[in-house]
Structures are given as C-alpha cells and as structure tokens.
Amino acid sequence: MLTRLFSDPSLLPDVQKYSGWADSEDEDSKIKHEDHDTQDDTADSELREDSRTQSEHNEDDEDDELDEEDDGEDTEGDRPKKRGPKKRKMTPARVERSKVRRVKANTRERTRMHDLNSALDNLRKVVPCYSKTQKLSKIETLRLAKNYIWALSEILRSGKRPDLVAYVQTLCKGLSQPTTNLVAGCLQLNSRNFLTEQQCQDGGRYGSGSFPMHSYPYQCARLTSPHCQPGSGSNSHPLRTHGYSSTYDSMYGGSGSPEYDSPEYEGPISPPLCVNGNFSLKHQGSASPENEKGYHYSMHYSGLPGPRPTGPSNLVFGSSGARSGIHSENVLPYHDMHLHHERAPVYDELNAFFHN
DNA sequence: TAGGCCATCTGGTCCT
DNA sequence: AGGACCAGATGGCCTA
C-alpha cells in the first residue's frame, strides 16, 4: 500500500517531508533495526557505531560531555568489555541526526532507483520490442538489449544482410518463453503493418521499390502473437504458399523446419530494422490507431535521414538532472525525443548499408 | 498459493 | 564528509 504511494517519484519527497505517515514508515524501519541492535548488542551494532564519521563524533562531543560514559552500563551485564572505541550512547540528539541522515539517504536512493528505472524505460523503447502496456521486465530488457547489440554487431561485422530467422533467434537467446513470444509477436506485428500499410501508401525510400520487403518469405510466420490473424493482409501474400509458416517452430523447439536450411531462403533478406517494422509509421503522416500501435512496437529507427545533431545539447540521454528533479526521460516525449536523437554511428552505418 | 517482479529501506564500502 | 553505489532484507502486487 504505502509502497505504491512511494512509487510516485513526484510525490515522494514532499510526502515524506510533510506527512506523518511517511515518517512513521521510516520509523518502523528504524524500529526494526533498533530492535535488532537491542536483541544482540553485537558486532553488528558496534560496527555501525564505529563507522560513524569523525565529524559526528565531534558533533557529539557536546553530548558526550553531557551523558558520556557510564562504563558500567556499556558492558551489558556479563559480557566482556568490548575493545575498540567505546560505544556511545544514542542520545536524543544523535538519534535525531541519525534519523535525518537516514531519511536523506533514503531519498537519494529512491531517486537513484527512479533514474535507473527511467533509463531502463528508455532502453525498453529502443530494443526491438516495445509496448507501453506489456513492459518487459528489467532482466529481460537487459537480455534483449544485449542480444540486440550482438545482432547488430554481427550485421556490421559480417557485412551481410541478416537472415531473419537467425536474427530472431539471436534476439531471443536466453529470454524467457513469455518474452520470446512477446518479441516474436512484436516482430510479427511490425512486419504485418509494413506489408499492409507501408507497402501500399509509402512510395518513398522504404517502399517496395527500394527495399524488397514484400518478397520476404518470413513475413507472417506462425506466431503465438494474437496479432497474426489467419487470412489477414500478409497471409494472402503469394509467398505464404511456400510453407514458411513455421518459422518460429525451430526456435521454440517446435516441429523444426528444415526449410530454413534451404538455399531458397537465403534470398532476399531484409535488414533487421525493416524486419522489425522500423518504418516508423509516425512519420508517414498517418495518425490512425493502427499506425500508432505499430509505432509503439517499432524501434523508432526509421527517421534516419537528416543531419546528425552534434554537441552536448542534443544529448537526450545525457545527465539525469536528478538534482534538479528533472529526469532526462521527462524532458521530451519519446516520439519527439527520437527525432532529436543523437544517432549512434552504427545507425548511420546500417542505414547506409541497407540503402545503397 | 507459490513464484516472479518490483519498490523501498538499510548498512557497508568506495569515491571525490 | 558526503554522496554514489551495492547487495540483502522485506513486503506488496500480480498471475498461473
């Protein structure tokens, strides 16, 4: 309950500052630890005491003058007298300072974790599967990102157009089954979007003329995604008759598809970005929900033409601005942000590679 | 209900 | 000295 309230970064600091219940939770935590300390007055609590900064000790001198030393009580009954610095009593002033220090540290830690989560959200948006409604978990996001980087690196290294199956397999390597399904569904949706909309309405650089996506054999492979409806647009494509509908069987441990080894499928290979539907429909002037949907699932990667922004002012992913309370992720909405995105060199290279 | 995921608190350690 | 970072602990929420 409180946890959820705390999860609102915009509310939290003020809430903590001005509300009693937030402090009470902090109090609960402290009580928990203080209980621990009292339960066993041990090295643990000693360590904590010993680790206190020198300045605190100096500050506490005044307190020490007041209530330092009652050595008798310090021995805690039968226990042998401890070595090292004498344990100091937690005077009310010390307790108060400790509380303030802890509250400040907690706030910083929350902010830090919020920044981390924001960065993860940004990462979710640039990996090949992005959905606002079905977010990848943190660990899966990192795994997918790693696989994505690996896949792109391989493309650059080999200088070959990627095979979609291998590409998808690389992307899904090590991912959980649900995430694999999700990724596959995203890829499928984007491919379909491209086929049914992009191909028809876009005569531009990504159209069928410059890029033979329409002839790609894996466009509507059978997927677990509900987006792939039998009989839907791409399903009627002539190439659907080639029996490639089990594209993902092999990766899911299904029937296995010897067809994949056939040279027949090494033909027209689309770039991974194209496969993933990186023909950002947002830029096509259409505001239809379908396009919007496709946009969310895309990698926002198509708006590559144009001069590369230079200089730190264009760094959307720059410093977090945590101190000012403004996170970089909040500066621009993503659909604006990626227009100003400082593209990594790999983007340009890939773009050039696939469009020459 | 168990397990996964997550947010938060906390103390320790390292760095500037 | 203070902040950043880290990992462990804890508890809530959600889903199969």
UniProtKB/TrEMBL annotation:
UniProt-listed GO biological process terms? axon development; positive regulation of transcription by RNA polymerase II; sensory organ development
By its UniProt entry, which Pfam families does this protein fall under?
HLH, Neuro_bHLH
PROSITE patterns with a match to the protein in the record: BHLH
Extent of Acidic residues compositional bias: 58-76
Task: Return the SMART domains for the record.
Answer: HLH
- Ranges for region Disordered: 1-98, 229-266
Q: Where in the cell is it found?
A: Nucleus
Q: Which Gene3D superfamilies match?
A: Helix-loop-helix DNA-binding domain (4.10.280.10)
**According to its UniProt record, where is this protein mainly located?**
nucleus
Q: Give the CC-aspect GO terms.
A: nucleus
On assembly, the entry states: Efficient DNA binding requires dimerization with another bHLH protein.
Protein name from the UniProt record: Neurogenic differentiation factor
Please tell me the species this chain comes from: Zoarces viviparus
